[in-house]
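Quick question, first post here. What does this chain look like in 3D?
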Amino acid sequence: MRPQVLICSYLHEDLVGRLIAEVPEVDVVYRPDLLPVPQFGADHWGKPRELSDNQIAEWRALLADATIMFDFDWWQPSAWREHSPNLAWIQATQAGVGARAAAMGHTENQVRITTAAGVHAKPLAEFALAGLLYFVRELPRLASQKESRQWQNGASRTLHGQRALIVGAGSIGSEVARTLGFMGVSCDGATRGSRILGRPFERSVTLQDCDLGEYDIVVLACPLTEETTGILNKQRISAMRNGALLVNLARGPVLDQEALMDFLESGHLGGAVLDVATPEPLPIGHPLWDAPNLLLSPHTAANVDAENARLVDLFTSNLRRYLGGEDLVNSYDPFLGY
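> Answer (accepted):
Ran it through. Tokens below.
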């Protein structure tokens, strides 16, 4: 029987057509009328539709036939054992799927899962660079002076010559290091254990052994696991250099958010750039909204117009590998959590 590929979140029809044309050995099923309505081009969550009983029955029949899924089932994702007995592989649309996969019961490799690692690396590196330049080149001061009609001489810092610690040296962390390196920033990489890193990193360190006071910039780009939850805690933030900048591209729970707010209030940190928070969405009235020297993105820094095309490129490559019996790219390990 030919593999049945079920697309479980929005894709532009041109990309679906490209997938069908490039991997004709599989049957691709795309029913956008049964999927959540996207709010933007790269929206893989969307707003659920009000489906009739017949439409739900149609979707359940498609789940039952699926061998491969592009994205997790949007309807009842935790019931995959019951609804999708033929399921062999899920291509996720997220780089960090650990918490989501565990919540759905994907804990023992019963179904292969591949992540979108690498797809979001460049957009996130751009966001990190933009946020750092926002503080280093004092863009808030320039905006304030313009607002108050002040033509005032002054000087700002430069990224060139600064030192950064990148916590997590995967595709995102490596791309951040490459991007900052182009700006003249020396980047060290912190990993689990004592893994040796080459370029774009200058040195390989562990967070446990390094001196955070040596760095002007700390970037969190690690997966969320039991080991990394709260890894940048109050003690470690206090050890950072006075005026240092912090970037979190990982997940909210990696960072002690209360300690972050305290150190921003005191001025110990020069600024923070967050693409993530705890909880998400951040509720009205949460103190993080009022934290000084904070640039906050609602976990959208990776959402760019080219995202789905890159995801289809990755999925197409993995489909060919799957059909050829080769190892898949970005395989998720439920025992490691990434």
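The longest helix spans residues 307-323.
The chain has ten helices and twelve strands.
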